[in-house]
Amino acid sequence: MWRCATARLYADGARVRRRRNPCEGDRHRAVTVSETYTQPAIAGSGTIACGLAACASVVSKTVLLARSDASAWKAEEKAHALCAKVEGADAKRVKVTTRPADLASCDVVVEAVVEELEPKLELLRTVGEAAPDADLASTTSSLSLDELGSGGGYPERTFGLHPFNPVVRMELIELCIPETASDEIGPRARAWCESIGKTVVEVPNEPGFVVNRLLFPYLFDAVRLMEQTGMEAEEVDRCMTLGANYPMGPLALIDLIGVDVAVAIGEALFADSREEHHRPPGHLIALVDQGKLGRKAGSGFYDY
User: Fold this and answer.
1) Angstrom distance (rounded) from CA 252 to CA 5
2) Which of 16, 112, 202, 270 is the most buried (most CB within 10 A)?
3) What is the pLDDT of the chain when averaged over all its residues?
4) Mean pLDDT lowest for which of 4-13, 52-61, 76-85, 164-173?
5) Burial level of 276, CB count in 10 A (0-12/13-18/19+)?
6) What domains lie within the chain, and their CATH numbers?
7) What phi and psi, each to the nearest 5 degrees, are found at residue 108?
8) CA 304 – CA 293 distance, rounded (Å)
9) How many other CB atoms are there within 10 angstroms of residue 32's CB atom?
10) Quick one: pLDDT at residue 4?
């Protein structure tokens, strides 16, 4: 749900070229159509959902499920715009709907809504019933996949598929297959992710997976340093972009992720580890209380 600080930045107007996984061997090339997904659906209307739909349109028709007519209109506009940035994507292959029944023939549904347990559980129950033969993926990186599987009612069909923002530019997908999931899901999910141009790393079933678990202590330390020293956000970020050669400073990255999302991820990590470096700093919580959620709200550490 965020852009990795060490990622290469692309020009906003650049069209992204799909890349073959350099680790891909004969085993992946031998995967047939019947062993991967051919009728995907993405449930959600935000940035992650629309980015996944654009990438999926490279290889097949894709259903994008929105909650309301208003969100469907915005999602269609956003997904079509993102298709223009992905080589091989086709906006005509993205069908936006508000009817769960339109997912009936789908073989995978990727849940991509707000990083909160109850909305995700409600959506997984809905799409699980509407698409009885589909594997069910969640884009969470901080919530328990075991709880999502059992609470959603389909533990044998539920797994983790965590892309990164912006999806059309970021290559990595963290793939997490819980012990309760069917053995067939892993190969199917990996083959599909690679078919849409992503590099897959299978990660342990722990809150934060790998990237967030390592990244957020760094981000939170940057906030604490700013609090303790009185430095400006621009100064902290400039130190890391010029001194460590990161393309984006930690505070600007929090704004991109969403301050509220960063707090939610930190709270989930802290609940699991009880380690102080996972606890969200007070300054972040204060920003959330003020409605300063980062880029999406027009202000956070910076004004947009």
Assistant:
1) 10
2) 112
3) 90
4) 4-13
5) exposed
6) 26-202 (3.40.50.720), 212-297 (1.10.1040.10)
7) -150, 140
8) 11
9) 7
10) 36
